[in-house]
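Fold this: Glyoxysomal fatty acid beta-oxidation multifunctional protein MFP-a
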Amino acid sequence: MSDVVTLSVTDRIATVTIDSPPVNAADHPVRAGLQKVFTDLAGRADYDAAVVVCAGRTFMAGADIGEFDTGIKPPHHQDLFNLVESCAKPVVAALHGTALGAGTELAMACHYRVADKGARIGLPELSLGIIPGAGGTQRAPRLIGLDAAMDLVLSGKPVPAAKALELGLVDEVAAADVNAAALAYAKKLVAEGKGPRRTCDLAVKDAAKAAEIIAARQAQVAKTMKNRTSPLKLVEAMAAAASLPFAEGLKLEADISRQLEHAVEARAMRHLFFADREVRKIPGITKDIKARPIRKVGIIGAGTMGGGIAMCFANIGVPVTIIDVSDENLQRGLGIIRKNYERSVSRGSLTAEQLESRMGLLSVSTDYAALKDADLAIEAVFEKMELKKDIFARLDAVLPAGAILGTNTSTLDIDEIAATTKRPADVIGLHFFSPANVMPLLEIVQGAKTSMDVLLTALDMAKLIKKTGVVSKVCYGFIGNRMMDPYGREAERMVLEGATPADIDGALEGWGMAMGILAVYDMAGIEVGDNTRIANPHMVPDDPSFYRCSALLVANKWLGQKTGRGYYRYDSPDRKRAPCPEVIEMMHAEGKRLNVPARKPGKDEILERCLYSMINEGAKLLEEGIALRASDIDVVYTAGYGFPRYRGGPMFYADTVGLKVIYDKIVEFGKTLDPRYWTPAPLLEKLAKSGSTFAEWDASKGK
Ligand code: 3H9
């Protein structure tokens, strides 16, 4: 008998239990165990129905994602689930937690499904660059219809049990203990003389509309998932459910799965799956270190950022006190928060009662004494060192012993801020991204004296408020903005040389960035970066062309979207960006005035200059120990900077291009462009010359 899959028979009901922590993934031992049990059941006559249950926190949460890299050993998921489906007696799955991917596919291969009322069921394979490859593309359309099945996989979002019932994905939602309910369901089937109801035998209910559905889904994918292969292949595989016999559909699914599993898209997305979790593993945070409790939070600054951060805590039921200099600021801030929540209510993602209960958790004051019982205070005012120092001195005076003092600075020296307090070990950077209530990234900046329990508390807190927390050490711009600096510099410089903003952003967006860098500046406000450079003069080289476009725009008060003009114009009724000939002319004239050599970079050069400059800076961050792992940088860029997940993040992307290729290009740019900016980072040079990769560097040194 397998350790992870066990079989017991009581009162002629067989119970198959999968017990493989943490998430009962369908790894080789689980598959081998299930194969043995179902082979065994095929030869037994001492049971009338079977129930499949999982121990622990969840039903099977999918295939073992790591196994795709090492190679999937038999039994293959498809064959195994066919074996389950072929069982001569009815098989009932009991779903709790998150049935995902191969877990949902196992459930669909069972003949009936009972779900716990809190269960969530989904097929998130596209988020890993693959398709459901364990029969899911053929069984889901047979069970719930082609269109609904396409929705389930293309959205990637698991549906709650009630919705699954409505779709026909499950047969019953259990009011109480799901395992007991599944057992009762099995007994009822036996009593009613019902046999197996195999999904493979069901007809696709909307097959007559297949052509229409497929065309619409192809159009959806081309529009919303460009540059990717797996979504189109998914549509192709699912379409087969409506036109081919089950066995032929399965064969197509297997062929497509094999092609996709080893492609860059899937490798990139698997890399990020593990990288997103690896960020929590920090050397020095040992098991004996305990996080501090966060029962009440103070936010300093009722602006957009402070309000967004306050919402993060109110959303999880933690009371927040917001401090600002005037009642007027505080009331304006509260008004913006309420408006944000009202938008959620109108979209149906929040109820009116939830809105009120969240607003009820927010209090305001102009007096720092209101924070005397706060466990954490986060300063979110503008980037002025003197102002921040003053705030930290006040916080130091009122916060209780053991409270954590956080700053949302994006560029300033946290150690300098910490030095103004008597408790630098309790000071940490908590760099949220705007809008803070939406963006999933949180850079956690570990100062020279930040204690390990404060760091652990910040990592735990990030998870609680549903953010991906990535630790950075202190430097100008930390991980994200420091790498953004050369990226933006090159983009701006190319405009001075003769490119248009649309050339730059078009190339970047066509490649997959959510938004081109110049459009991002327009959205954030051009003055934001400019103020940062003013606040950090030591970071500005002696180069009149450095970020000159931004400086010119600020001088003209063309600050981006909010003023109707920046790199682009925003004055059409739909407020969509449009080229601004006046701005383009001004920038090209400025390039000439500054003797910037004129050139019209093509798409490849735009991408190389933007991405390779960023990657080179990333290599420096690794060498300096600012970022712990190349994969941490990838998480920062995909979670916070719109870098396409299917390219794996800048450092993974660099590995796929080849570090030698990038190194050679940087050397070439050092000769043809401004040599000050194009010197390969020593780490990049070393890895390139030894034929190595950032992934190998992570594996050998980064841990
Ligand atoms: C699939 O099924 C393909 C098939 O269609 C076809 C096959 C041919 N594999 O996230 P957590 C680990 S593709 C391996 O921190 P939570 C995870 O790395 C799969 N490991 O917990 C972590 O390890 P560590 C489709 C996995 O409570 C630990 O478990 N399924 C897997 O916040 C805890 O995870 C998915 O995409 C896995 N499948 O969230 C679901 N899942 O402690 C992926 C988890 O060493 N999983 N681990 O860092 C999830 O979405 C979340 O883990 C889940 C729990 C919601 C289940």
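The chain has three domains: 5-262, 297-474, 481-701. The first helix runs from residue 28 to 42.
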